[in-house]
Design a protein that fits this description.
5-stranded parallel sheet
Length: about 120
């Protein structure tokens, strides 16, 4: 099973880090990235990802807003520089919360957690 993912983060450096880490996982395909949270919110519908890598602190429309408005959300991995958002992100069903900058081991563990969740649903 190939996992489809998108990333939404207003910081281009964070997007590059997610791209680099995702490229090291054979069954993960980062199909799109968005620096605009509004375009990213639309991308969730258009790209139909299994995984959403999501920042919280963004202009206009933050990650909590995005999470709150999704009707049938993909599995969400929050990547944020502010640990104060962790409780709210987990309350809104984020599968994992990673602090910026994401480390390879933590990133891989979060993707494995999503994989396990998706396999449970299929079983």
């Amino acid at each position: 099973m190939k996992l489809r993912a998108i990333a939404i983060d207003d910081d281009p450096t964070s997007i590059l880090m997610v791209q680099k880490l995702a490229s090291k996982i054979d069954d993960l395909e980062l199909v799109n990235t968005y620096e605009s949270p509004i375009e990213g919110a639309a991308g969730i519908i258009l790209d139909r990802p299994d995984i959403l890598f999501l920042d919280i602190e963004m202009p206009e429309f933050n990650g909590i807003d995005i999470m709150s408005t999704l009707v049938k959300p993909p599995k969400i991995i929050v990547i944020s520089g502010n640990p104060l958002f962790q409780p709210k992100a987990l309350e809104l069903d984020a599968v994992a919360f990673i602090s910026k900058p994401p480390q390879e081991e933590e990133f891989n563990m979060a993707v494995n957690k999503v994989r396990a969740h998706l396999l449970e649903v299929e079983a």
